[in-house]
Amino acid sequence: MGRILTIANQKGGVGKTTTAVNLAASLAAAEHRTLLVDVDPQGNAGSALGIRRDESEKSIYEVLLDDQPLSEAVRKTELKFLDLVPASRHLVGAELELAELDARESRLKRAVDTLAPSYEYVVIDCPPSLGLLTLNGLVAAQGVIIPLQCEYYALEGLADVLKTIELVRAAANPGLTVDGIVLTMFSPNNLANQVADEIRKTFASQVFQTVIPRNVRLSEAPSHGKPILLYDVTSKGCQSYLELAREVAARFGAEGGLA
C-alpha cells in the first residue's frame, strides 16, 4: 500500500488546497501513481485540475453517504499518473448527515483502503475546519501534512491541529503521524523569518526544508484549471512544489516502494 497523506489545517487561507493539488501533481509528474481525494465542500481541488464541482455523476459525497465504491468516483486528469475523486456541493450538509450514521468517522478510511494498493500516494484535501469531514480524513490517513503560513497566529492554529491529531490517535487511528509541516505563502520579511525560525526551533525535523513562496503564478493557475506545473513550470511556486514532492518521496520512499 502507498502512503495516505491528509493535508489539514483548520485555518483558512494558508495554502492547504494549493498544497494538496500541487503536491499531488508534482508526485504524479515524477511518475508516482497518485490519487487526490477532495473532501472539501468548496471543491477547489477539482476545479484547480479543470474538473468543476458537480460536473461528475459520482463524487466523494456518494462514497461517504451512499456507500458507493470509491473506484466509481475516480476521474482522470491531464496528468497521466494523477487521478481525482471530486467533491460535491452536497458535502455542505454532509457533517449533519454523517452524524447520524454508524462508524461515521471511518467511512472515508473504509473507502480509501480499497483503492490505496493501486496508488503510491493518496492525498486527501480537507476543509478548513475540524469537523467530521476532516476527522474522516485524519482517520483514513497514515500521516498528516500541515501547511502553515508564516504569520503571527500560525502557532496558535498549529496547536489546535496537533491537539486534534493527538485525539484522533488516541481514539481512532493509533498509527497516525505528523508527516511534516510545510511553510507556505512565505514572504521574506522580518516577521515571516521570525515565525519560520520559531517553528523550526520548536518542531525541528518535522518541518520540511522546502518553503513555498508567495507567488502570483501559483495564485493564477487555479483560474485556468491547471496545477502550477501545467501553467508555468518555470515559476518559483512550481519549482518549490516539485522540490517538496522530492522531499516527500525521499521521506516515504522505502515505505511506498519509491526511489
Automatic annotation (TrEMBL):
Question: Which organism does this sequence originate in?
Answer: Anaeromyxobacter dehalogenans (strain ATCC BAA-258 / DSM 21875 / 2CP-1)
CDD domains to which the protein is assigned, alphabetical: ParAB_family (cd02042)
| Signal peptide stretch | none
Provide the organism lineage as a comma list. Answer: Bacteria, Pseudomonadati, Myxococcota, Myxococcia, Myxococcales
Task: Give the top-rank taxon of the lineage listed in the UniProt record for this protein.
Answer: Bacteria
User: What is the protein's name according to its record?
Assistant: Cobyrinic acid ac-diamide synthase
**Gene3D superfamilies, alphabetically?**
P-loop containing nucleotide triphosphate hydrolases (3.40.50.300)
Q: Which Pfam families match?
A: AAA_31
Q: Where is the AAA domain?
A: 3-177
